[in-house]
Design a protein that fits this description.
Blueprint lengths: L1 E4 L9 E4 L1 E4 L11 E3 L13 H12 L10 E4 L14 H10 L6 H19 L10 H15 L4 E6 L2 H11 L4 E7 L12 H17 L2 H6 L3 H14 L2 E5 L8 E5 L1 H11 L9 H8 L8 H11 L6 H11 L6 H9 L6 H17 L18 E6 L7 H8 L5 E6 L11 H12 L6 H27 L14 H9 L20
Parallel strand pairs: 4-5, 4-6, 6-7, 7-10, 10-11
Antiparallel strand pairs: 1-2, 3-5, 8-9
Helix pairs in contact: 2-3, 3-14, 4-5, 8-9, 8-10, 9-11, 12-14, 13-14, 16-17, 17-18
């Protein structure tokens, strides 16, 4: 645990702690500076650094660019999140949401419930923590203190989702402490994401629907998906569907009440993972028959975020209210949301909720510097997925051009967190870290083309095996189901695991 002042300007004041895990390289290369992973984003998402969790996924997604390549990997939960102390999580919200999502509440009723949750949360946490000191600039000072404590001259910085804003802030405030940056699904401070939230959310749903319409066979099998989804939202708001699932509370059946607005929230979170895009048409069709079997994994994932006890949502609200909300024109955002149609229903309540959060938190606003582009000359690799639902690729493409020394990798068929989805992305990051001046774009594109070809071949092989008729053995005994063979084939491809979507559990905001 790294101990730092809660307020760096008052070093003799209250102390806080955040966890630091260091994975040492198998054969360390003294010329390779460590890579610091700046957390799971959110802001407020937990890295899952508990010993029983960390090694399971860290080795899968980051070993190739670090410990297997002579470079130490250092991972933190930023202040207020995960294993940090204090952990600024709104337990009140978890308890209220656990009950609320089993009830048929209108959007206004749900908003009142969660407003009451936040008021109680603020009252409790503000008694022992100064919520004004949980933001990107303060995290940057924490990281600089950590670097000094470890005695490391320069760090390579890795930021995924909102943690990429930490990387940019550190590069701005402590440029001499940084060697290079890897930004995965990046958040840029000059983009006021809340301002454009309505149009971004609608565009995300449209990308999900277009994924099918761009394939002739899928379009023929599932025509007119947007109209059908809009009709489902309206029907479920009128007559919600109870979906019982056992994957939310172990050993218990959880009666999730699926309204139209909750369907939109569940689908939006599911779209963080590109694998969901192929499932969406069949889910819409099944819901039209008042069935939701195929939607259950997405509901479980959504509720996993909502009920995550390690999610530092109070710290996340502090970030938002300090460094983004002051630069949002909420009247324009509400006007945009009011014109966003049926699929923008949940966004309309989110805009008001986000502004209300900041009235409850009542913390000072950031200086205008926090809304300006970071034009660091440090070598930077910017990687993004074209299907990213929460951070539009067009925004990243525009913002990255302000970085004078960067390389850009866009993955057309990936969504949020490309390194967790593609070995080619990790290999590109590893090559970049070895030599930040070496171009990696062409090699990554070639690698990705081969990766997609392998995946297509594997999917075809699995489909062919599933179509084969079951052969009866000569002695009449039943044959093994084709699923056994399909699962074996699936294990040929190395499985990479997406981390839990790093989102705001109150809304569709990053």
């Amino acid at each position: 645990m790294m101990e730092v002042p809660e307020n760096h300007d008052k070093p003799a004041g209250r102390k806080i702690q955040f966890p630091v895990v260091r994975f040492f390289a198998e054969i360390r290369d003294p010329d390779k500076e460590p890579l610091l992973h700046l957390g799971a984003g959110g802001p407020g998402a937990s890295m899952g650094l508990e010993p029983e969790n960390a090694s399971d996924w860290l080795w899968v997604n980051y070993a190739g660019m670090t410990v297997e390549n002579g470079r130490d990997l250092i991972v933190i939960d930023p202040r207020g999140t995960g294993m940090a102390r204090p952990k600024l999580a709104c337990d009140e919200f978890i308890k209220d949401a656990n009950l609320a999502f089993t009830r048929n509440l209108s959007t206004d009723e749900e908003s009142r419930v969660f407003t009451y949750s936040m008021e109680r949360c603020y009252t409790r946490l503000s008694a022992t923590a100064d919520l004004a000191h949980y933001n990107s600039a303060t995290v940057a000072r924490d990281v600089e203190a950590l670097r000094q404590a470890l005695g490391i001259p320069k760090l390579n910085l890795y930021g995924v989702s909102y943690a990429s804003r930490y990387a940019l802030t550190i590069a701005r405030d402590f440029p001499e402490s940084v060697r290079a940056l890897v930004l995965n699904s990046a958040v840029f401070p000059e983009i006021i994401y809340t301002q454009q939230l309505p149009e971004d959310v609608i565009a995300a749903y449209q990308r999900g629907l277009d994924y099918c319409s761009q394939d002739a066979a899928c379009k023929k099998q599932y025509p007119d998906l947007k109209r059908r989804l809009e009709a489902l939202v309206e029907e479920l708001d009128e007559a919600p569907l109870t979906v019982e699932t056992g994957n939310i509370h172990p050993g218990e059946r959880y009666p999730f009440l699926l309204t139209g607005q909750r369907l939109l929230r569940v689908l939006f979170q599911a779209l963080y993972d590109e694998r969901f895009y192929k499932e969406l048409p069949a889910i819409i069709e099944e819901l039209e028959s008042d069935q939701a079997e195929q939607l259950k994994p997405a509901i479980a994932s959504f509720m996993g975020l909502v009920l995550d006890p390690n999610f530092g949502d109070a710290a996340g609200i502090s970030h938002f209210c300090y460094e983004e909300a002051p630069f949002v024109d909420f009247d324009k955002a509400r006007l945009s949301a009011s014109n966003s149609g049926i699929l923008g229903g949940s966004v309309r309540s989110d805009i008001s909720m986000m502004q209300l959060q900041c009235r409850i938190w009542a913390i000072p606003s950031a200086p205008v510097l926090e809304s300006r582009a970071v034009k660091t000359p440090l070598p930077t690799l910017v990687m993004h997925g074209a299907l990213d639902p929460v951070l539009a690729a067009r925004d990243a493409d525009r913002a990255r051009k302000k970085l004078p020394n960067h390389q850009w990798l866009l993955f057309p068929q990936l969504a949020h967190d490309v390194i967790s989805a593609s070995e080619c992305a990790e290999q590109a990051a590893a090559r970049f870290l070895d030599d930040p001046q070496q171009p990696v774009t062409e090699v990554a594109a070639s690698c990705r083309k081969e990766e997609l070809a392998r995946m297509a071949e594997l999917e075809k092989k699995i489909a062919d095996m599933e179509r084969e008729p079951t052969q009866e053995p000569a002695n009449g005994a039943a044959a093994k189901p084709d699923g056994e063979s399909a699962r074996g084939a699936g294990e040929v491809e190395k499985q990479r695991s997406h981390t839990l979507p790093a989102g705001n559990r109150y809304s569709e905001a990053h």
